[in-house]
Structure formats: C-alpha cells, structure tokens
C-alpha cells in the first residue's frame, strides 16, 4: 500500500475513533512522524457510575508492555484533568489484566453464570425487539441504577452490534432480557427484573417464541438479587480510582464494547 493510501486510511480511523470516543484517540508513533501505524492505541469512552463521570478504556492493544503501561498512565492523567474520577476496563487476556493491576486497577463488577430449565407456559407474555438504545439505558437505570452507563448514543453502537449478531430483546413491564439462541438453549447476556418470577416469565415467553428451546444459561451481576445463591462467579471488569474512591461492591458493568 502506498504512503498516501496508508495516510488516508489512518486519518479515517482517527476520525472514527475521535468522534465515537468523545475525547481523543491516543497514538504512540515511536518518535517517527511517518510511522502511521502506531504500536499502541486505546479509545477513551465517557461513562457514568453513581452520578460520577469516568472513562472506559476500549480497544487497548499494542506491542510492548512498557508502551501500553505508559499509554494507560498518560490517558488516565489526561482524563482526570477533564473531570473523570475513575477509569474502568474489561481486560481481554490475563496478560492485559496483570498490566492493568500494575497500573492501579482492581477487579470489580463480577458476574454470575447459571443454567436454568425453562418451563413451558403459554400464559407468559412479553414484547420482543421493541427496546431502543435510549430505552435500554432507562431500563438499566430503573432496575440497577448502580451501573456503569454508556450514553444512549454509544449504547446504540452496542445494541446495533448485538442485533447484527443475532440477539433478541424480550421485555415486559417487570423486566427485560437480552439473549442469543443456540440450538435448544437461550443464552441471556443480560437479564433484569423485579424478582425471580418476573425473570422466569421473560424466559418462558422467549421459549414460546423460539419454540424448540428448553433451557437457558443466564449471566447476571454477582450482587444482582435475581436467583441469589445460584451460579458460578466469574471476573469481568476492573476499576481504577483517579479521585476519591467510592464503594463499588454492588456495582454492575456489562455489555461494554468488547461484547
């Protein structure tokens, strides 16, 4: 590829990342202006948690742990100057998790994964695929306000990706769920409801729609009140405080851009 073709592609990528990220795309070019492809890159996405402004690190990747570590430090410092009091991330590998821990991040936002049999119930009614990105943000605020929230505009990107990957959203006045169907199983990547029975009604309605399913695998927050005591705990996200720390023991983070 010629120099100008590389330059044009790189400028387009900078435009997309900058507009989407809302803040900036940080590029480290190893002191060479003509090195268009950087060895490390990350996108800073604005989020909120408990009424506080923060940053979500998306797409952290590159060559060399020292470069990545320096990039994380620089980005967190810059975002703190812009008023971000915390930074969250979803590590994509054990090596990335270890690097983030070295930079002051700690595990948080654990999840629970649990299998459930889904009963057949013709009386269980719900709506399907009627939830917009704005509505999804409102539902998360209602059912679990202690949630790391993207803006509706950025949630629209997540929702579009979920739909294009085959996701279905089932909802009622008492809850909602986002699931994928694989053979005879419904995989719920998010499920929020007033209580266990309301969640079961959503699963039963989904079973009636999908016809041949008999069971579900549900992922919920570790501290979420649904089906308490059930499931296997698993790590998901990490957080670093760049201002006064606050309690995130019962906070929830899910459906970030890595998903």
Report the span from N to C terminus.
32 Å
- Derived from helix and strand composition plus strand pairing, the structural class reads alpha+beta
Spatial strand sequence of the major β-sheet? 7-8-9-10-11-6-12
Counting DSSP E segments of at least 2 residues, the number of strands comes to 13
- H-E order: HEEEHEHEEEHHEEEHEEE
Integer average pLDDT? 83
Helix content: 25-40%
Which strand-content bin applies to the residues? 25-35%
Number of helices: 6
Q: Low-confidence runs (pLDDT<50, min 5 residues)?
A: 1-37
Major sheet description: 7 strands, mixed
Shape: elongated
Computed CA radius of gyration, to the nearest angstrom: 20 Å
Q: Key features?
A:
single chain; about 260 residues; alpha+beta; seven-stranded mixed β-sheet; six-stranded mixed β-sheet; 6 helices; 13 strands; about 30% helix; disordered N terminus
Q: What is the topology?
A:
Blueprint: H1 3-21, E1 25-28, E2 40-49, E3 52-62, H2 65-81, E4 86-89, H3 94-102, E5 106-108, E6 111-117, E7 127-128, H4 133-143, H5 152-164, E8 168-172, E9 175-182, E10 185-193, H6 196-210, E11 215-221, E12 232-234, E13 237-241
Parallel strand pairs: 3-4, 10-11
Antiparallel strand pairs: 1-2, 2-3, 4-13, 5-13, 6-11, 6-12, 7-8, 8-9, 9-10
Helix pairs in contact: 4-5
């Amino acid at each position: 590829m010629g120099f100008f073709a590389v330059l044009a592609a790189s400028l387009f990528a900078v435009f997309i990342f900058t507009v989407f990220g809302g803040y900036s795309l940080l590029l480290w070019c190893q002191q060479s202006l003509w090195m268009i492809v950087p060895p490390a890159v990350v996108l800073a996405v604005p989020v909120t948690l408990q009424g506080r402004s923060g940053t979500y690190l998306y797409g952290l990747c590159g060559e060399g742990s020292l470069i990545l570590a320096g990039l994380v430090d620089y980005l967190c410092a810059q975002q703190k100057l812009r008023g971000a009091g915390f930074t969250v991330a979803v590590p994509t590998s054990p090596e990335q998790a270890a690097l983030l821990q070295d930079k002051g991040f700690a595990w948080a936002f654990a999840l629970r994964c649990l299998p459930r049999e889904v009963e057949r119930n013709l009386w269980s009614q719900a709506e399907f695929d009627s939830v917009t990105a704005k509505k999804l943000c409102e539902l998360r605020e209602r059912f679990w306000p202690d949630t790391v929230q993207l803006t509706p505009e950025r949630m629209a990107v997540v929702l579009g990706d979920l739909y294009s990957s085959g996701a279905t959203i089932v909802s009622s006045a008492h809850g909602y769920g986002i699931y994928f169907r694989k053979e005879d199983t419904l995989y719920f990547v998010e499920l929020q409801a007033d209580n266990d029975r309301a969640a079961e009604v959503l699963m039963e309605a989904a079973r009636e729609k999908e016809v041949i399913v008999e069971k579900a695998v549900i992922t919920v927050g570790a501290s979420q009140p649904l089906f308490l005591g059930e499931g296997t705990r698993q790590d998901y996200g990490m957080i670093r405080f760049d201002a006064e720390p606050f309690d995130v023991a019962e906070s929830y983070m899910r459906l970030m851009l890595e998903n």
